[in-house]
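Support reply, case 0932

Customer input (verbatim):
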Amino acid sequence: MTTPTSTRALTWQRRARALRTGWRSFRAQRGAVAGLAVLLTIVALAVLAPVLTDESQLGVINTMSNPALAPPSGEFWLGTDENGRSVLLLTWWGARVSLLVGLAATLLSVFIGTFVGIVSAHFGGWLSAVLLRFTDFFLVLPSLVLAIALSTVLSRGVGTIVLAIGLTAWPTTARLVRAQTLTVQARPYIERSTALGAGHGHLIAKHILPGVLPLVFANTTLAVASAVIAESTLSFLGLGDPTQISWGSMLKFAMDSGAVTNGAWWYLLPPGLGIVCVVLSFTLCGRGLETVLNPRLRGR
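Our regenerated output:
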């Protein structure tokens, strides 16, 4: 007779075995591994920026003696901006805000989408109909336009950008989670649990949510890429936090300062490449996770 302790031990062993198998499948995909390596490098540099760099050099007053829009040199590897600040330093610190907003907005949108998708699929009836119409309303309206409207109405800041993106990007996740929840609920063990008297909370927490989380996790990596692009777009339009440096705000300042007409390519290229690298890395990781979680995609 098995004890609860032995049952938990077997469960942990199965989960550890599944993780090892998933990691081997993920590691077999060179694109996903390369994306993960680039992403970890960028995140590590962003986290270590206060330790490895001097934040005071981001201030305009401390760089007044530096040349404006100077090309790359031995002193300034990526040149300077219109205020004499190092473009390399700006790009380094800009990664912190872009990644922070992208991750925070994605977590908010995924939480809302997961909640709406599970509730609408599990309970059904009039509640499902209302939530689906609400989701369709947000799907029809352009999310970027809604984000711009929210950013305009609310006070400008990083928190506003996170809310604007998170509150407008959840419908796609809700649709995916709802479809997956309906698939999980059709399995025999759900019927057995219901026949044994399991309540809604037990079914959702013990059966539905674990069956939905792999899809949510894979979708999250893809959603972060969209959130980073949305943050860069809003910042480029002048709706970001004016006191914070991000890749989108760097592109805006470069345009406002005439870097394009002056041929200061070193001011435009680093933040643009940063956005491309982060988006591509998250996309590669997301595709790799999809292949791991969906065996039908393997070998394609």
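We compared this against your earlier run and they match. Two observations from our side: Residues 87-123 form the longest helix (37 residues). The mean pLDDT is 85. Please reopen the case if you see a mismatch on your end.
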